[in-house]
Design brief:
Belongs to the synaptobrevin family. The chain is an alpha+beta fold. Helix content is 47%, strand content 20%.
Length: 199
């Protein structure tokens, strides 16, 4: 999974778009390809930003690249574009685009949009570095990953208890914390389930 390019683009409803801030990670390309690939990514970003109606999100695929666009519209007329490979999940990209546009709108005054060369937004470099891992951009994905890791730890813990030679039946029989009724329930449930074991 890879993010190649992130751009904040001024996308007016009429006329051509202007790149206000951008960052790219072209380390996977050879020295001779980087210039051409960078130009293509810039062109691709501006084109999809212009072709995405205000207030909409879309993903546009071109060969091995996918451009994810969020044209926020409104009075600022900002659009965010992230170009990734085909494996990068969609939901984290759109979470990241929302964060990026909010951050840009808060830190860069709209009056400076007319002079893109004077805009300073170094945070965009942090975005492209930090969010190469999609779980950093999406809280739901991060929580799911943590749950999966917890499940693995729980499985390991249960396996390690059983490997010590103790059987659950013996533990139940010796337990002072279980009532006679609970012990009976456990044994009855085990007998009923044992009839269904396939040998």
């Amino acid at each position: 999974m890879k993010i190649f390019s992130i751009s904040v683009i001024l996308a007016p409803t009429q006329g051509s778009s202007t790149t206000l801030a951008s960052a790219s990670d072209l380390s996977s390309f050879s020295f001779y390809q980087k210039g051409s690939v960078g130009e293509f990514m810039s062109f691709f970003s501006k084109t999809v930003a212009e072709r995405t109606p205000a207030g909409q999100r879309q993903s546009v695929q071109e060969n091995d690249y996918t451009a994810h666009v969020y044209n926020r519209g409104g009075p600022e007329q900002l659009a965010g574009v992230i170009i990734t490979d085909g494996e990068y999940p969609v939901r984290p990209v759109f979470s990241l685009l929302t964060k990026l546009l909010d951050d840009f709108a808060n830190k860069v005054p709209q009056s400076s949009f007319s002079n893109p060369s004077a805009i300073s937004f170094p945070e965009i470099n942090t975005y492209i570095t930090k969010y190469q891992d999609p779980s950093q951009a999406d809280t739901i994905m991060r929580v799911q990953q943590e749950l999966d890791e917890t499940k693995i730890v729980l499985h390991k813990t249960i396996e390690s208890v059983l490997q010590r030679g103790e059987k659950l039946d013996n533990l139940v029989d010796r337990s002072n914390q279980l009532s006679a009724q609970s012990k009976m329930f456990y044994k009855t449930a085990k007998k009923q389930n044992s009839c269904c074991v396939i040998m």
